[in-house]
């Protein structure tokens, strides 16, 4: 990551092109309390904040406390599971949008915005695999919205 950023900086493109790396939750050996991925006595009220702070603590332990974290995909399936309902998915997306729009931040990083992207734009009715994996979209494949969301 540093080498790519340094190369972009050398040609004056470091402000125009951002360097990112994708990770997944399986990389965290221990995610709670987040500072061991220490909770300094501020309680966590949702899993999203706890996971975000666990990633921040883990990368801080590796010297990356100044590296911003972007949540590149977060979603909830709307069909084909016990809790995979359109109502639950709509509630998840509305609450997520409301949470990240607020300036509350997380217990470890209060007052900081969290750049977050929804997964996914459209249901993928032709996607192979489990049926539930085809139903994460906020739109149906025919482009009709599934939920009333306010960004």
TrEMBL record:
Keyword flag Hydrolase: yes
InterPro entries: GH, Glyco_hydro_17, Glyco_hydro_17_plant
Keywords: Glycosidase, Hydrolase
A molecular function (GO) term: hydrolase activity, hydrolyzing O-glycosyl compounds
GO terms for biological process, alphabetical: carbohydrate metabolic process
Top-level taxon: Eukaryota
UniProt entry tagged with the keyword Transport: no
Pfam families per record: Glyco_hydro_17 (PF00332)
Gene3D superfamilies the UniProt entry points to: Glycosidases
Assigned protein family: Belongs to the glycosyl hydrolase 17 family.
Family matches, as PANTHER family: GLUCAN ENDO-1,3-BETA-GLUCOSIDASE BG1-RELATED-RELATED
Full protein name: Putative glycoside hydrolase family 17
């Amino acid at each position: 990551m540093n080498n790519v950023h340094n190369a972009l900086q050398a040609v004056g493109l470091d402000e125009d092109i951002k360097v990112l790396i994708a990770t997944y939750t399986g990389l965290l050996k221990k995610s709670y309390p987040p500072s061991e991925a220490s909770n300094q006595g501020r309680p966590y009220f949702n899993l999203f904040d706890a996971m975000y702070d666990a990633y921040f603590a883990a990368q801080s332990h590796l010297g990356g406390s100044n590296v911003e974290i972007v949540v590149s995909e977060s979603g909830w399936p709307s069909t084909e599971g016990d809790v995979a309902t359109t109502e639950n998915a709509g509630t998840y997306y509305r609450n997520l949008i409301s949470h990240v729009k607020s300036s509350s931040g997380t217990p470890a990083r209060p007052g900081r915005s969290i750049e977050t992207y929804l997964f996914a734009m459209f249901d993928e009715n032709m996607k192979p695999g489990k049926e539930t994996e085809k139903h994460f979209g906020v739109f149906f494949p025919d482009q009709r919205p599934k939920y009333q969301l306010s960004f």
